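Exercise (ungraded).
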Amino acid sequence: MKEHVNHIPSYNLIIKILVALLFFTFINTVTSTEQFGTLAIVLSLVYAVVKSFLVLSYYMHLKYESRFMQYMVTGVFVLFTLVIFITFIDYSFR
Amino acid sequence: MSNTAHHAAHGIDRDSGKMGMWLFLFTEMFLFGGLFLVYAVMRSQYPKEFHEGSLELNVFIGTLNSVILLISSATMAASLTAIQKNDKKMALRLVLTTLILAITFMVFKGYEWNHKLELHLYPGSEVMRNLAKGEIMFFGLYFMMTGLHALHIIIGCTLLTIVAIKIKKESINSQNFLLLENSSLYWHLVDLVWIFLFPLLYLIS
């Protein structure tokens, strides 16, 4: 078995990620309260996806995991999005 | 058992242990995903009622709880870094901080739900029955989604308590921290769910 070096995120990096997460939360409240219309939904989802990416990569250590784990999680997320999206389309246009 | 053999065995345990946790997290994703799907469908059918429903929610408390949960995720991630650096004291302190933040989240959630109960806005109440169908759907989903999420927070609190005790007793240490790692994964998933719940229920109107 290949010996893999165990990388861990430093406290510094964890705090930087937290600041980014809080920043997106703040921006989200701003772009929702003012009159952004339908754009508010799109923006909110974009922020949520960016935040999820940060949490998954750094807090859930996917950035430091094996290729296999990274592909597995990405694959399931793609499947998840497709299931939600296709069922939604199916329901809406029936 | 020789030292190398022990490490090799431990390595396999850790990887498969984490894999098992991820598989469980996938089922959790689809559990919440079903509710998100219902939300999307209902929202597209009753946009006006969902707008009016979301105005009833307290954005300030929602935002505060988001901040609390994000900080708790950071302290949990930091505790995993601490245990790997063999800093038991720091790891314990960070897990306890996470636990306190989780309880604070629940206190605010309780306050919010209590306010809704005082207004008789809960599934099955007289007030709720007289609302428009779309609004009934909105509040039904609100209680179901935040309720299921809150249940996960409570389970998380139990898990964090067990982890704290085990760190104290040193059965979780810098060589053997799978339980801390998996609890941390679970806690981050609970955070991820809230990252989507918060804008969908509180912000978009």
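Further reading is listed at the end of the chapter. For now, observe: Residues 1-5 of chain A have pLDDT under 50 and may be disordered. Chain A has one domain: 11-92.
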